[in-house]
Amino acid sequence: MSSPHEFPAIDHGLLRFLTCGSVDDGKSTLIGRLLYDTKAILADTLHAIAATSQRKGLSELDLSLLTDGLQAEREQGITIDVAYRYFSTGTRKYIIADAPGHEQYTRNMVTAASTAHLAIILVDARRGVQTQTRRHSYLAHLVGLPHLVVAVNKMDLVDYDQAVFERIRAEYLDFAARLGIEDVRFIPLSALHGDNVVERGERLDWYEGPTLLELLETTPAAHTERPESFRFPVQYVRRPRDAANPDLHDYRGYMGRVESGEIAVGDPIMVLPSGRSSRVRDIQIGGVSQSSAMHEQSVTLLLEDELDISRGDLLVRPDEAPPTVRELEAHVCWLTETPLSPARTYVLRHTTREVRARVKRIDYRLDLNRLEQESADRLDMNDIARVSLTLAQPICPDPYALNRATGAFILIDESTNDTVGAGMIVEASASPSP
User: Fold this and answer.
1) Which of 165, 324, 332, 426 is placed for a possible disulfide with 188 were both Cys, Cβ 3.0 to 4.6 Å?
2) What CATH number should be reported for the domain holding residue 424?
3) pLDDT at position 26
């Protein structure tokens, strides 16, 4: 008889997902359980975990050691940095990000969520929905994660009581409705004992929904749930030359990654911000011609016309062009100890384009504990606020809600070259720069 986590040999695509929630809700243990039960742990790693667990006097494997990799994390029993792990099943590949639960590491959670497609928000069945549960749910919603899974963990410590699960579910749904969170699923589980993670187990027989792995296996892949506009930021202009055959390889190719949408040979193309047009003459991957390219493929595009194109330009379809703007309204997460100052100029990096930017005003700062807006004249580390930015040169963004690649940016300190802020564009305006 096949086990319940065996699926047909169909590739459902890569899924990047995030685990988050309050401290000690069991995020690292859940990831360890997923890796252990899907047999994704190497023998030497498993032996090291068993030896460490024995030294700690534990009767079972401490699966959290798989992700709590920093020495400080092991000593303090907390997650500080974002830990990434990779595994695959018969149907898809996964990249897991284990985000810290402490409030002071909010910036790490935002960083992890920026590339994820699904968030697993853990709730301790004994404690229910906590302040950090609400914080992380709000942040996941803010950065545009399309799918949320609320995993009510440690059900073994409440005797697998269905009433406890239903009470937490009702409390979370009430909170989610006020934030506008729509796609949320609930799963009761025990990461320590493996109930409802990969195998269903026998102690949650009242739950008739999918296990966590079954849900992950069937979540739609990124870029597949709605039509997307073609966006191709130019990273590098390639001019290969062959001295023996100068006519064979003498061309101008534009290298980069297709961030969204698709393109095919013969399709019309527009270069932004210049607005000049051409058509695609060839698409190459590793020097081999292709008839088309799609999202997340790194390719070289050759055009029919010789145009002035350089790093930082954006190639789009003429009928899908975003506006060329000099002012932005965005949510910004401040990442550094030096406060944001409206008096300073920063470098704004949007896709592969860099421009100088200043904060015109701070509209409000988000109080993530009370989920309310408050006035502010500066931002400290881990603060999230809505700000207005003015740019010295134009960029061509999309709203973050429509395109996470071209709707995001980072702010860089000109003097130190440190990344100091991460932004998500809400609105863009073609107003002239000051």
Assistant:
1) 165
2) 2.40.30.10
3) 80
